[in-house]
Amino acid sequence: MPSVQDYTDPEVSKNTIIVAVLAIIVVVLALMYIWGSNKVMRIEELPPLPPDEQTEQLKQVSTSDELDAIEQDLLTTEPETLDTGLSDMEAELEAEKLSE
User: pTM score > 0.85 for this model?
Assistant: First the structure.
């Protein structure tokens, strides 16, 4: 009865392994390229958010480096309301994720 060694050539086994590894690398690189290009397209497809009152208020800060101007900017900024739209955005993103 012939042994398994009679049917396997070590040189052919090496070549098979090399070809398999190269094929896996090509597939992984192709998937990374496709995933990356889809991610860029998704970002570009998002509509711009409408300006809200808090954002407009934050844009109206003084450019002065005087202490009184900085203090006035700090007093007019309400840190408690900085993340009011965050929960709405998170809900929209989750809804988009679920719809895909």
Answer: no
Task: List the one residue out of 43, 25, 22 whose CA is nearest residue 33.
Answer: 25
Closest by alpha carbon to 53, among 76, 75, 19?
Answer: 76
67 and 37 co-located in one domain: no
Q: Are residues 29 and 15 in the same domain?
A: yes
Tens digit of each residue's pLDDT, the chain (100 residues): 455 555 566 666 788 889 999 999 999 999 888 877 666 556 566 677 777 776 776 677 778 888 888 888 778 777 776 676 777 788 888 888 887 6
How many domains does the structure of the chain reveal? 2
3 state SS of 30: helix
Nearest to 41 by CA among 49, 30, 33, 29: 33
Residue type, position 92, single letter: E
